[in-house]
């Protein structure tokens, strides 16, 4: 009886888990196919689909932790072989993913991507083995020899500058033209900045050198702060809007080196796997119930 209950529970897990996996991946595939591709220059604020390339100079980029390769984004996993005999298995002992923003462009503009929370599917995935917990580098000899020995297995995935990137997430734009000129706020910001170096402020506006600002000197300082605030606002206007893509919350956040069609196919295959799990679990439930006469009573 205990064995029958265990099989029944296992089959039920297959039904519910497979059902969740099926609907999750099928909905993502449909969302990808139904969302039109936008351009950065004309994209609406909110949930969008973009397609372009990763930007950045190698010398200015972060370095992947395991190989030291310059890249825009990385994810790594270190596994250790544990157990003995036929019971040896790989156990994850360390893993981490990059959270640093990187630049993305599509020919009409640029956008900063905050990858935190994203389902990232990169083009580059490197797997090798070794005898140290933290490898310093990967050279040709160690990479070839790693297939035959090693107590540690390393996996590192990366996004590099110049690679194509499909992005699905929440798009937002910020800039002087959108925000407008708030004189009180802008002038106040300049004054607070100047007050941080109060001796320099006195040298600049304390005309009678008595060690404090009188009403006339204060008025003069406020006028120059207003001119400075307007100057800074015009400079921001010339810079144009700053765009950002980030986690949309309840909707999928996807960054992938695969194109839309290939990515949608990937999600549909995963949905099919979930459907097969549902069928297998349902068959298991029916079989165990028939075998024990639970459907005949």
TrEMBL record:
It catalyses: S-ubiquitinyl-[E2 ubiquitin-conjugating enzyme]-L-cysteine + [acceptor protein]-L-lysine = [E2 ubiquitin-conjugating enzyme]-L-cysteine + N(6)-ubiquitinyl-[acceptor protein]-L-lysine. InterPro entries: EF_Hand_1_Ca_BS, MUL1-like. It comes from the Bacteria. It is an enzyme of class 2 (transferase). Its main location: membrane. Its EC number is 2.3.2.27. Keywords: Ligase, Membrane, Metal-binding, Transferase, Transmembrane, Transmembrane helix, Ubl conjugation pathway, Zinc, Zinc-finger. It is found in: Membrane. Residues 83-174 form the E3 Ubiquitin ligase MUL1-like domain. The keyword Zinc applies. GO terms for molecular function: ligase activity; ubiquitin protein ligase activity; zinc ion binding. This is RING-type E3 ubiquitin transferase. It comes from Atopomonas hussainii.
């Amino acid at each position: 009886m205990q064995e029958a209950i265990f099989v029944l529970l296992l089959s039920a897990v297959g039904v519910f888990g497979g059902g969740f996996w099926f609907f999750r991946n099928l909905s993502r595939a449909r969302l990808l196919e139904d969302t039109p591709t936008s351009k950065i220059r004309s994209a609406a604020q909110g949930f969008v689909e973009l397609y372009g390339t990763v930007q950045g100079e190698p010398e200015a980029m972060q370095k992947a932790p395991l190989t030291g390769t310059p890249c825009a984004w990385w994810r790594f996993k270190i596994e250790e072989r544990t157990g003995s005999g036929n019971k040896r298995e790989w156990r994850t002992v360390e893993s981490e993913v990059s959270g640093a923003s990187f630049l993305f462009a599509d020919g009409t503009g640029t956008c900063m991507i905050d990858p935190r929370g994203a389902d990232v599917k990169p083009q580059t995935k490197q797997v090798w083995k070794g005898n140290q917990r933290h490898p310093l580098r990967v050279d040709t000899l160690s990479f070839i020899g790693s297939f035959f020995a090693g107590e540690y297995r390393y996996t590192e995935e990366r996004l590099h500058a110049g690679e194509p990137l499909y992005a699905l997430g929440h798009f937002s734009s910020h800039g002087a033209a959108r925000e407008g000129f708030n004189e009180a706020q802008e002038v106040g910001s300049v004054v607070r900045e100047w007050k941080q170096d109060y001796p320099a402020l006195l040298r600049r506006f304390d005309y009678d050198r008595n060690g404090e600002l009188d009403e006339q000197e204060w008025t003069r300082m406020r006028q120059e702060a207003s001119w400075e605030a307007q100057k800074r606002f015009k400079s921001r206007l010339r810079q144009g809007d700053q765009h950002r893509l980030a986690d949309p919350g309840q909707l999928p956040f996807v960054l992938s080196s695969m194109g839309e069609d290939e990515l949608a196919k990937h999600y549909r295959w995963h949905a099919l796997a979930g459907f097969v799990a549902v069928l297998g679990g349902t068959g298991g439930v029916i079989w165990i119930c028939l075998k024990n006469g639970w459907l005949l009573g």
